[in-house]
Design goal:
Length: 197
């Protein structure tokens, strides 16, 4: 009897022009999904030129938190460096450029400067801007004052960022070694010159 039923079902499907697979659920006859193609290889990033002529706050400020690049574009990390400074401290452009943004983002004052002759952009926050979009600034020019906040750091700090397009980079790489150096200067002895009495 079962055999007769199967033959009748097959004959009915053939007469109606239906494939037997149409009677099965979709998952039973669908092709398995193809794996996603691998992402295209990333082009190597150009090195960051050491073109900063000053720190954005103070003279060799304490780095409270260093740059920690995220593993993925939206992954956890620290997309800049936090520099200790008192509220009200002047915030300076580290290199010449043009202000591309000066305003508030999510309630926080931000200044962005496109660095002259490069594809790099620095950001400074939380800042009360003293510049406006389109202003030309030189290295060391004041772009605003540091605002007090406890949301990002345990004490007042400047979050200094560096971007190339949408990619975050280490802003400390803008500093030449002589400006990045911490600690007292050390002089080597000059041979053949008597010590002062």
């Amino acid at each position: 009897m079962r055999r007769v039923m199967r033959c009748a079902l097959l004959t009915t499907c053939l007469l109606l022009g239906l494939a037997p697979a149409t009677l099965l659920p979709g998952w039973a006859w669908a092709d398995p999904p193809r794996p996603a193609p691998p992402p295209p290889p990333q082009a190597p990033q150009a090195p960051v030129p050491a073109l900063a002529r000053t720190w954005p706050v103070g003279v060799r400020p304490l780095v409270l938190r260093a740059w920690e690049p995220p593993a993925t574009p939206y992954g956890p990390g620290h997309r800049g460096v936090d520099l200790a400074a008192p509220a009200g401290a002047p915030v300076r452009a580290v290199a010449p450029g043009r202000v591309s943004f000066a305003g508030r983002v999510a309630g926080t004052g931000v200044v962005s400067v496109d660095l002259a002759g490069t594809d790099l952009r620095t950001t400074y926050e939380p800042v009360s801007p003293s510049v406006t979009k389109g202003d030309e600034v030189g290295a060391g020019d004041v772009v605003g004052t540091l605002q007090p906040t406890s949301a990002h750091c345990p004490t007042t700090c400047l979050h200094w960022g560096l971007l190339r397009g949408a990619a975050y980079l280490d802003p400390l790489s803008l500093l030449p070694p002589w400006l990045r150096h911490r600690g007292p200067s050390r002089l080597l002895p000059v041979l053949g010159v008597p010590l002062p009495a």
